[in-house]
Structure formats: structure tokens, C-alpha cells
Amino acid sequence: MGISYDAFAPHFDAWQRSFGGAYDDLILPRIVDVLARHAPAARRIVDLGVGTGDLAIALARRGYDVVGVDVAPSMLAVARAKAGREGVRLTLVEQDLRVLRLEPPADVALCVYTVVNQLTAEGDLDRALASMHRSLVPRGLLVFELNLAASYERYWSGEETVEVGDAVVVRTHRRREGSPVIEADVSIRRRSCGGWDEVRDHIAQRPYADADVERALARAGFTLVERQTYDPFAAGAEPTKALWVCRRA
Known about the structure:
globular; alpha/beta; four-stranded antiparallel beta sheet; single chain; 35% strand; Rossmann fold; 7 helices
């Protein structure tokens, strides 16, 4: 998927908070509202791209049976440790969502943050949606986020430097030549007794046009229920995210 998070995982939560709050706390009310309106009887939820686990933990505390899936073992390790410390039961699985196999199937599949935008290769979106369709019960709900153009203009251009606790995260962005994909080289500089240690990571994302998403959903057998746009960090600001709510045929 063009992303590793190997070095980034221990700093991911602090980096998210640097934009204006813990992202899981900001998106949770929106997710809870969607579930109440479109899947009130849902019990089993799969969180695709579970990351460090905060959203999955919050949903488990609300009584859902939550399965967290991520392709990055480093992110799963953080989520597993966090769930253990907080005494919350999660099922955590290392899988690539493009070839997801989930038994038994879920009532709801969630895929928030920028996970779908990390599907950067041709055909990745179709493969992922097909696997999500297979992993849901009939009439199951798929809820996923996509970054809008304003997000890339605001957060994915030039160089960005953010202090996160004992580290400084520097992301340098560029557009892949001849491709819609945007890449970020990540440098994480951590204070040590001898000065600074530096580790590096790499992130790639692909912006998707609405029309392309709608066609991919139809090919996979999903019906669009609703689409919301918003800025999770500033109510009333220009939208940077879209939340797609879809029903499996």
C-alpha cells in the first residue's frame, strides 16, 4: 500500500494530536451517529486500518465486538499494548485489506483516517472494496473516509515540522512524477543523551475523485447511502474530509 509506519507508529498519536486533538475523539461522534441511524442492530464491527486502536477501543467500550485489521505490525503492537493497559478486549489481525478474509463476516466495516487514500496502485481501490464486500453480512454497512483536495493543499505540500513529545517529525512532500500519487518522506528526530537520533519512514497517498469512487462502489456491489464533508479539526472550516456511508447489496 505504499506505507510502512515502522518508525512512525510510536509517535503517531502525538502527531495526530498536534493538528488540533486526538483524531479518534474527533471522529467518534460522527461514527456513533452514523451507526445509530443506519446500523442500529449492528454488533460486530471491523475497523480496517485500526492504527493505534483508539477508535476500536472506544467502540468496544460501547458494547460492540470489534475486530481491528492493519497491515502494519508496528501499529498493531501499539494497539495491542494500549488495549491491554485499558482492559479492553479487541481482536487484532494483521491483514492487507485488498485481500481481506474475515470470518464470520461483520455487520459494519469502518475505514477511517487516510487508509483508503493509501491504496495507491491501479486497481487497489477495486480490490479493497471487493474484499470489504466479502467481509460484510448481506445489507452490511461500509463507512470510510477520504481526504479531499483541500486536505492535500493544507497538509501535503512543502515541508511540515511538528514537535511531538520527545521527537520532531519532519515530512517533506512531493508528487510522484507522471502519477496522481503524493509522497511524504518522514524524518523522526528523537532527543537522546548524545544529541539526536534520526529514523526515517515513507508515506504515499492517492487522491480519488468522487466519480471514480462511485463507479468503484457500484462495481463492488455497494449502494451509496450518504456522503458527508467536514473538517474534523475546525467546525465550519473548508471541508478536508468526506465520509462515505454505503450498503452492501
